[in-house]
Description:
- By secondary structure, the protein is mostly helical.
- The chain is built from twelve helices and three strands, in the order αααααααααααβββα.
- Strands 1-2-3 form a three-stranded antiparallel sheet.
Amino acid sequence: MGPAADGDPLTAAPPAGAAERLRRAEALLGHGFAHQELLAEALTHRSVLGEGQKRAARGRMSNERLEFLGDRVLGLLIAEWLAERFPAEPEGALGRRLAHLVAAPTLAAIARENLVAELLAVAEGEARAGVRARDNVLADALEALLGALYLDAGLAPARAVVRRLWAGAISVHAAPPKDAKTGLQEWAQARGLGLPVYTLAASTGPAHAPSFRVRARAGETQAEGQGSTRRGAEQDAATQLLEKLAK
């Protein structure tokens, strides 16, 4: 990462609002950044920068690259923790736990608990549209923060943050959790309804930021879910349908 550009609102001599976001992010992570531009980048939603030449001209990046790195850091640290915590479980059970703990809904819940949305720099129009409330945006921001922390300080501080922020999530399931689609399938088959049916209801947004809406149906009951991938939307639809059936 290069030095911050002069006058950049989130890095070099940031104004009070941006400086406060950086300070609160450091408090959340328990780490004072030697390279504050990493932290600023982790908190920059792509809507702030625009696309193509505009992005290159401003000399800044959104948090997408750090999210890519943070996703891998999180997966490693959660896998390591699960192997320690559940030494007798087979690979399949550990895999289900891992999938649950790194899934967007889990990350978004942790981000909401820790007010990550308030730290994220978003373009005014996107902010009015409620982009900070979206699970995928919150999950990406949390992973980007882990990526920035790893680059600034290494694996040990990232491990400490993961074990602190994910402590509740890793303890909530005595048995390995089932993903929503598996749970819905078992519910439907136990009642002789056959396999649930998933239908793509809508696909919107640009290629770099698609949004999918999927309808799940079991018997005569259906519900819709959304996600940045079709698979994620199917999982959300299954979750919504299970909640509906439970009522």
